[in-house]
Specification:
Layout (H helix, E strand, L loop, with lengths): L1 H21 L16 H13 L5 E2 L5 E6 L11 E10 L4 E13 L5 H6 L8 E6 L10 E2 L5 E3 L5 E10 L1
Antiparallel strand pairs: 1-2, 2-5, 3-4, 3-8, 5-8, 6-7
Length: about 170
């Protein structure tokens, strides 16, 4: 009786585990318009763009973008893995991060909201410039390097030029 019970228990557990694996595909439940920058940040971004004669499209989230090449390959969603080349700078022109030779592979579900919302607007081979208000970037906290130096002051508008090399 004990062997029969053990056998049925193992069989049931195995069936349960396999049925959980059957539908392993995870949907991307992300809506970029759900995350909207405060009106004051959008106004500051608009002033920056206007003052610098920059033509950009306003996204429902409050960021602005300019697509220089939409690309022709696969198009990611907000949860895709991607490989990108990019330069990140502040409105004063200071570059705070860049990856322009060797592409960086990353998961869009783990990046700042501005990237997650905008990169799916282009396809592989596409290029864009993002103008990201603080709420969709790094917010009010200073970002420091390993030596404790402030690299990105809190409440900074971020500007990224991005090339989508591939969708992983």
């Amino acid at each position: 009786m004990n062997r029969k019970y053990l056998f049925v228990s193992i069989l049931s557990l195995t069936f349960f585990q396999l049925s959980c694996l059957k539908n392993k595909e995870v949907s991307c439940d992300y809506s970029p318009c759900r995350y909207v920058a405060p009106a004051s940040e959008i106004a500051d971004l608009t002033i920056y763009l206007t003052t610098n004669n920059i033509t950009a499209t306003k996204h429902c989230s409050g960021l602005s973008y300019s697509i220089t090449d939409v690309g022709t390959g696969k198009q990611p969603d907000a949860c895709s893995g991607v490989s990108v080349k990019y330069t990140g700078r502040l409105t004063n022109g200071n570059i705070f991060d860049e990856r322009i030779v060797t592409p960086l592979g990353l998961d869009l579900s783990s990046v700042i909201t501005g990237w997650r919302s905008a990169i799916p607007l282009i396809k592989e081979g596409g290029r864009m410039t993002l103008y990201i208000p603080p709420y969709l970037g790094y917010g009010a906290q200073d970002r420091k390097d390993a030596n404790g130096n402030v690299v990105i002051p809190g409440n900074s508008i971020l500007i990224f030029t991005i090339e989508l090399v591939s969708v992983l």
